Amino acid sequence: MNYRLLLPFAAFLVPVILGIIIFQLDSFDPAPYPADQLSRKKPVSAPSRNRRMFHGSEKIGVGRVWGPEDILYDPETGVIYTGCMDGWVKRVTVNESSAADSVVEDWVNTGGRPLGLALGHHGEVIVADAEIGLLNVTGEGKVEVLTDEADGVKFKLTDDVAVAEDGIIYFTDASWKYSLKDSALDILDGRAYGRFLSYDPNTKHTRVLAKDLFFANGVAVSPDQSFVIFCETPLRRCKRLYLKGERKGTVDVFVEDLPGMPDNIRYDGEGHFWIALVTDFTLSWELAQKYPYLRKLMGLTEWYARRQLKDGGVFVVDLEGNPVAHYNDRHSSLVSTAIKIDNYLYCGFVTSNFILRLNLTQNPAVSS
C-alpha cells in the first residue's frame, strides 16, 4: 500500500481530530443567553449620521496615552484626565490650536488598571480601577481604596463610575468572576456576573443596587438627579434606576437595540447622553448569542474574536433615550468613551495610543 497517498488526508484529519479533542476538554462552557433577554429587533437608527468620524479628526498624546479607556474633564482647570494600561492616570492640557502639541503629564499611578473616572465634590478624582476597586485620588495625588467588595463578594472588574450631587458614588463591577484580561470570556460566557452598586462616602457603606447583569458597564446620572443609567454591553442596552418619585428604586430599560455594544456613557450638559460603542452590531454576534457552541469556539480563538471588533463609534440619545445622532467609522474599534467639550468630541479607546478629537462644527452628523 502506498502510504504517501494518505499523507494529504492525514494532514487534514489530524488537526481536525485535535481540534475536536481540545474543544471537548476545554473547561470554558458558555451558557445559552436567556431568550427573553435577547433582542429580536433591528438596531435602532439615528436621524443624523457621520460615518467617517476619523476623517478630519485630530490625535492627542500619540504614544503617551496607551489605552485611554475613559476621559474626565475638569471645567475649572480645563485639564483632561485619562486612565491608561500602565496604571497611570494622566493629565492632559489640550492645545486648542494644535491637538498634537497638547501636554501629557504622568499624574498618579494606581498600581492597577484605571478605567472609569469621575470628579468628586472637593477636587478629588474617583477611579474605577479594574484590578483594585473603587479609589479616591486627592488633588495632591494620594490614593485611597474606598471599597473593593459588596455583600462579601470581591470586585473582579470595577468598570465605570459617576458621582451624584448628593455625593453618592454610583459604579459598576462588570463581573465578579472574570478579570479584565479575561473580559472577553465574560461576554462570551452567557451568564450574568455583573453588578451595579453605590458607595456612600459618609457612611462608607457599599450597596448592591442591581445584580445578575450582563457585563455591567457605563454609568451616568441624569441632570435632575432623578435617575442613573448603567449599560449592559453584550445585550446592547442601557438600563435606568429611578432615584426619586413614585418609581424610586425600580429599574427599566432606558435605551435598547443599540447599533453596537455600549461601553461608557457621558452626559454633555446640553440634554444628551453620549454612548461609546466598542463595536458595531454584527450578524456573527447575533448568531453567537443564540448558540453557545459558537461562543465556545470564539473563546478558544479569542484572537479571531477580537479581530471582529470593528466599526466602533458613538451613539447620542436625549434624556428619554430617543436617538439623536450616530458617529462611527469602519476604521475604528474599541471606542470606550465619548465626551463632548464645547464644540469638540473627545474619544478614548481600550487599546489605542491616542485620544481622538473631532470638531463637531466642521464634521457634524447629517440627516441620513
Automatic annotation (TrEMBL):
SUPFAM superfamilies noted in UniProt: Calcium-dependent phosphotriesterase (SSF63829)
InterPro entries, alphabetized: 6-blade_b-propeller_TolB-like, Strictosidine_synth_cons-reg
Gene3D superfamilies: TolB, C-terminal domain
Strictosidine synthase conserved region domain span: 159-246
GO biological process annotation, one example: response to jasmonic acid
Short name of any one Pfam family annotated for the protein: SSL_N
Any one cellular-component term (Gene Ontology): vacuole
Entries under PANTHER family matching the protein: ADIPOCYTE PLASMA MEMBRANE-ASSOCIATED PROTEIN HEMOMUCIN-RELATED, STRICTOSIDINE SYNTHASE-RELATED
Protein name (Swiss-Prot/TrEMBL): Strictosidine synthase conserved region domain-containing protein
